[in-house]
Specification:
single chain, alpha/beta, 31% strand, binds (2S,3S,4S,5R)-3,4,5-trihydroxy-6-oxo-oxane-2-carboxylic acid, six-stranded antiparallel sheet, 18% helix
Length: 599
C-alpha cells in the first residue's frame, strides 16, 4: 500500500508537469504539415505593432494583419508588401542590416487547412529566440519564453479551410532576469530558429510517454503513457515487434497510465547503437518511435554504461552552422558535427549551453554518440528572482520532456560556471530535485569552476557537488590561467567520491596563423595547450570524461579583436570555415590511445 502511494504520488507529479507544460512529443512520428519556408516580416524596433502611443497593449496590433477596407482607411503596415525571411533561420545572418539587431520582428504566414471532423490541430514551434507571442487569425494563442525549447498551441477551433494567418511577435532583446541573462559568450541569434509544423491528431491522442530501461533492472522497461482528449480512459498497448513484446494496460480518467514489463533487449551503446521500433497504441491513436535501451550510472567515482565503466571521449559544441555560421537546425549540419566527433575518435558531445535541436539528439541515438544536454543557466543569473527560477525550471522541463526517450542523452546539466553562494545553491538544488523527479534514469551534472587551495592544487569542493551525480569542471589552465607551461605543475583533488568530467579547457587560435608555441592565437599555442592538457587529464582523480572547448569556432559579441577574432570565439579545434587546426589532431590521437589502452 505504501509503495503504491509513493508511486502514485511520483507519477502524479509527472502527469502534472506534463499537463502544465502542455508539450506534445515525438512530432516526427505524427501527421504534420510543415510551415517552413519564407514568412513575411516587419521589423519593429519600437514595438509599434504591439503598443499604442501611451505604451499600452494595442488590441489592434500587427497581429491583426489588417488591410485597408476602403480607399480612405489608414493602415500603416502591410505584411504582404513587406520583406520575407526564411523559417527556420536566425534573422541575423539572413540580412546584413539585421546582423546586430536585437528587438522585435513580426512574422506572418498564411495557410489553408482542411481539418477533418473529429480531428484536432496544433501548431508546434521547435524554438523561437527569445520571447514569442503567437496569434492565429488575429487571436492570441499564447506566449513562450526561452530561445531553445519547443512549444505548441491548439488551434482546432480557430483554423479555417482557407486564408488562415499565423502571426508571431518574436523579441530577442536581452534582459537581466532572463535565462540566459544579458551576458553570454555566444551570439544572440534571433528569430524562429527551428521547424514550424501543424500537427494533426485524433480527438483523444497519445500526447506523451516515457519508455526507458528501468534503472533498477536490466530486463525491465518502465515508464508511463499520457493521453489527452475527451476519452481519457482507454486501453493502451506498447508493442516492440522485434522483441515479440506486447504490453497492455489501461489509462485512468486523467489519461495517465504507468507501464512496466520484462524484456531482454540488446542494450544500446556507442559500439552498437541498437534502436527498436516501439509502437504506442490507444483505442484512438497510434504512434511509432525508435528507442534504445541502456543503463547509465555513477558509482565509486566512475560512469558506468550498461554496468561497465566508460570513458566519455567528448567535445563541446555550440549550435552553430558548420562552414558558414548562424544558428543551426538541420539534419545535414547535425551529421557534419557528429561525423567530426567520430573522426576525433569520440563517443560523447556536450551540447552547450542550451538544448540543441531535436534532430541532432535523434541522430546521436542512431550514430551511438552520448550527449550532455544543458539549460542556459549561465554565469550570473538572478538567483533570488522567482520568475527567473520558474523560467529556468520550465526550460529544464521542456528539455527533459522532449528528449527523455533518447538513449544518447546520459546527462542533464543544470548550470554552467555559476558563482558559489547560498542563493545559487538553493536555486540549483531545486532544479536538480525537479530533474530527478522528472527523469530518474539519467545522471545530473553541472559545469563548475576551479578552486585553488594552494599554488599547485585545485580541489573539486563546490558545495553543489553534493547534489550532483557527476561533477563537471571547467578549467582554463594555459589560457586564462597562466601559460601552457603551468599545466604540468598543477594537480587536482576532489572531496567527492563522484565522477569528474572536465567539461571545458581550451585556447584560441586563428586557423592558418602560425608561430612559436608561446605566441598567442597561433595554432601552435593552441596545440601546446592541448598537448599539456591531455597529459594533465591522466592525473585528474575520478576522471570519467572530457569535453574540451570547443569543436568549432563560434560567433560571439565578446570577441572583437580585429584580424584575429572579428567576433568569433576562436577556441574551435575546427575553424568557422570547417578547416581543422593542429589541436584537432592532438585530441584525436589522445582519444585513439584512450580508446585502445584506457586512460
Ligand atoms: C567558459 C564558458 C564558455 C566560454 C569559454 C571561453 O568558461 O563556459 O561559454 O565560451 O569559457 O571561451 O571563454
Amino acid at each position: 500500500m505504501k509503495f503504491f502511494l509513493v508511486s502514485v504520488l511520483f507519477f502524479t507529479s509527472q502527469f502534472i508537469f506534463s499537463q502544465k507544460l502542455n508539450l506534445i512529443t515525438n512530432i516526427e512520428g505524427r501527421k504534420t504539415t510543415s510551415l517552413n519556408g519564407y514568412w513575411k516580416i516587419i521589423i519593429d524596433p519600437y514595438e509599434n505593432g504591439f503598443y499604442n502611443y501611451r505604451y499600452e497593449e494595442n488590441p489592434n496590433g500587427y497581429f491583426k494583419n489588417q488591410k485597408p477596407q476602403s480607399k480612405s482607411d489608414l493602415v500603416e503596415y502591410d505584411f504582404d508588401k513587406s520583406d520575407s525571411l526564411m523559417v527556420p533561420g536566425d534573422w541575423n545572418t539572413q540580412q546584413e542590416k539585421l546582423f546586430l539587431y536585437e528587438g522585435t520582428i513580426w512574422y506572418k504566414k498564411s495557410f489553408d487547412y482542411n481539418l477533418e471532423n473529429g480531428k484536432r490541430l496544433f501548431v508546434y514551434f521547435g524554438a523561437a529566440n527569445y520571447k514569442a507571442i503567437v496569434y492565429l487569425n488575429g487571436i492570441k494563442l499564447g506566449e513562450h519564453e526561452g530561445g531553445f525549447t519547443p512549444f505548441n498551441f491548439e488551434i482546432t477551433n480557430l483554423v479555417k479551410e482557407k486564408d488562415n494567418f499565423l502571426t508571431l511577435k518574436v523579441d530577442d532583446k536581452r534582459s537581466r532576469e532572463f535565462v540566459p541573462t544579458v551576458n553570454t559568450d555566444w551570439w544572440n541569434y534571433g528569430g524562429i530558429t527551428r521547424d514550424v509544423d501543424l500537427v494533426e491528431v485524433p480527438q483523444t491522442f497519445i500526447k506523451d510517454y516515457f519508455i526507458q530501461l528501468d534503472k533498477n533492472f536490466d530486463n525491465k522497461i518502465s515508464g508511463w503513457v499520457l493521453l489527452n482528449g475527451d476519452k481519457p480512459k482507454q486501453k493502451i498497448k506498447i508493442e516492440i515487434p522485434e522483441l515479440e513484446k506486447i504490453f497492455s494496460a489501461e489509462t485512468d480518467e486523467t489519461g495517465f497510465c504507468k507501464i512496466g514489463f520484462e524484456v531482454n533487449p540488446v542494450l544500446w551503446s556507442p559500439e552498437n547503437p541498437k534502436l527498436y521500433d516501439v509502437i504506442v497504441k490507444c483505442e484512438s491513436d497510434s504512434l511509432k518511435d525508435k528507442i534504445g535501451f541502456r543503463k547509465i550510472e555513477a558509482k565509486d567515482g566512475k560512469v558506468l554504461l550498461n554496468g561497465k565503466p566508460i570513458f566519455l571521449r567528448g567535445i563541446s559544441s555550440h549550435e552553430e552552422v558548420p562552414f558558414t555560421g548562424g544558428r543551426s537546425y538541420s539534419k545535414e549540419d547535425a551529421e557534419t558535427v557528429l561525423n567530426w566527433v567520430k573522426e576525433l575518435n569520440g563517443n560523447f558531445i556536450r551540447l552547450a549551453h542550451y538544448p540543441h535541436n531535436e534532430k541532432i539528439v535523434r541522430l546521436a541515438d542512431e550514430m551511438g554518440i552520448m550527449i550532455w544536454s544543458e539549460i542556459p543557466v549561465y554565469w550570473t543569473i538572478l538567483w533570488k528572482n522567482e520568475a527567473t527560477f520558474e523560467n529556468a525550471l520550465s526550460q529544464l522541463q521542456a528539455m527533459i520532456t522532449r528528449d527523455k526517450n533518447r538513449a544518447s542523452v546520459i546527462l542533464w546539466s543544470v548550470a554552467n560556471e555559476t558563482p558559489r553562494n547560498d542563493e545559487r545553491l538553493a536555486f540549483l538544488t531545486k532544479l536538480i530535485e525537479n530533474a530527478r523527479e522528472l527523469d530518474g534514469t539519467r545522471l545530473i551534472t553541472a559545469a563548475l569552476e576551479n578552486h585553488y587551495i594552494n599554488d599547485s592544487t585545485i580541489v573539486m569542493d563546490d558545495p553543489l557537488g553534493k547534489h550532483l551525480d557527476v561533477t563537471g569542471l571547467n578549467e582554463y589552465l594555459g589560457w586564462y590561467d597562466g601559460l601552457p607551461d603551468k599545466i604540468s605543475k598543477i594537480n587536482y583533488q576532489t572531496i567527492y567520491n563522484k565522477p569528474i568530467i572536465i567539461s571545458e579547457f581550451g585556447a584560441g587560435a586563428l586557423q592558418g596563423y602560425h608561430g612559436d608555441k608561446l605566441t598567442r592565437w597561433t595554432e601552435e599555442f593552441q596545440a601546446y595547450v592541448y598537448e599539456q592538457q591531455v597529459k594533465l587529464m591522466r592525473r585528474v582523480p575520478n576522471l570519467s570524461g572530457m569535453t574540451p572547448w570547443i569543436l568549432s569556432d563560434f560567433r560571439s559579441p565578446r570577441r572583437p579583436l580585429p584580424g584575429i577574432q572579428d567576433f568569433w570565439n576562436r577556441k574551435g579545434i575546427i575553424s568557422d570555415k570547417g578547416i581543422k587546426k593542429k589541436a584537432f589532431y592532438i585530441l584525436k590521437d589522445f582519444y585513439e590511445d584512450v580508446k585502445k589502452n584506457g586512460l
